[in-house]
From TrEMBL:
The active site is at residue 117. InterPro entries: DHS-like_NAD/FAD-binding_dom (IPR029035), NAD-dep_sirtuin_deacylases (IPR050134), Sirtuin (IPR003000), Sirtuin_cat_small_dom_sf (IPR026591), Ssirtuin_cat_dom (IPR026590). Zn(2+) binds at residues 125, 128, 150, 153. Residues 1-247 form the Deacetylase sirtuin-type domain. SUPFAM superfamilies: DHS-like NAD/FAD-binding domain (SSF52467). This is protein acetyllysine N-acetyltransferase. It comes from Streptomyces millisiae.
Length: 247
């Protein structure tokens, strides 16, 4: 943590999951009525081996991204409430399981957001590592390239997301662990806390003395070690909670 911000004020870490973005129109694919429960084949589109080895999966994956709401979605009240907390001078770090970039779109500086599962807003070449904007790749798809290749080297392009079968970036994960352990308040919002290792951050924070607050519609495995569990809708509950923390 840099020493130039909120000297002496408690560090608030926020772990966000899919539930924070549903009000922005982004469906929770893993949720009870999520796409992956209804269409198991859909999971192949975001599974690394299938994606790398099957051009047809890549074509379908690009079409899915073209049709997805993630790139046009706007931040909602919950994202904005986190920005308001940061602007009130409270040291804030967000650790997110989401790839939609909505925390930054709401105005949170990049350096205060750790994207555990990467970002759907960028595209990476799997051969040379060149990074470009997803919009650019989707424009090529719209223009008729159904599986656009890297313009530098011809390699396979994929979004800069962590697909099934890929490991999390160890550096990003290490930073998340440091933040969880250093936090005074750890708010887990819109996450079922069932996907590891992200979920274990909540336990780590509690073990290191943080006040753990869980905001989620459904029960989580960490409810028992939480100081507070809030079941109200995130769009109302989170602004109220963070407003209290800003005082
Ligand atoms: Zn390349």
């Amino acid at each position: 943590m840099s020493s130039d911000e909120g000297a002496g004020r408690p560090l608030v870490a926020i772990l966000s999951g899919a539930g924070i973005s549903t009000d922005s129109g982004i469906p929770d694919y893993r949720g009870p009525s999520g796409l992956w429960r209804r269409d198991p084949d859909a999971e192949k589109l975001v599974t690394y081996d299938f994606y790398m080895n099957d051009p047809d999966i890549r074509r379908r994956s690009w079409l899915m991204r073209r049709d997805s709401a993630a790139l046009t979605a706007r931040p909602n009240r919950a994202h904005e409430a986190i920005v308001a907390l940061e602007r009130a001078g409270v040291p804030v770090r967000v650790i997110t399981q989401n790839v939609d970039g909505l925390h930054q779109a709401a105005g949170l500086p990049d350096r205060k957001v750790l994207e555990l599962h990467g970002s759907a807003r960028s595209v990476l070449c799997t051969r040379c590592g060149a990074r470009t904007a997803t919009e650019e790749a989707l424009a090529r798809v719209a223009a008729g390239e159904d599986d656009p290749a890297c313009r530098e080297c011809g390699g396979i392009l994929k979004t800069a997301t962590v697909m099934f079968g890929q490991s999390l970036d160890p550096e990003v994960l290490a930073q998340a662990v440091t933040i969880a352990r250093a936090s005074d308040v750890f708010v887990a919002v819109g996450s079922s806390l069932q996907v590891q290792p992200a979920a274990s951050l909540a336990g780590m924070a509690a073990e290191h003395g943080a006040r753990l607050i869980i905001v989620n519609a459904e029960p989580t495995p960490y409810d028992d070690v939480a100081s507070e569990v809030i079941r109200e809708p995130i769009g109302e509950a989170l602004p109220a909670l963070l407003d209290g923390l800003a005082r």
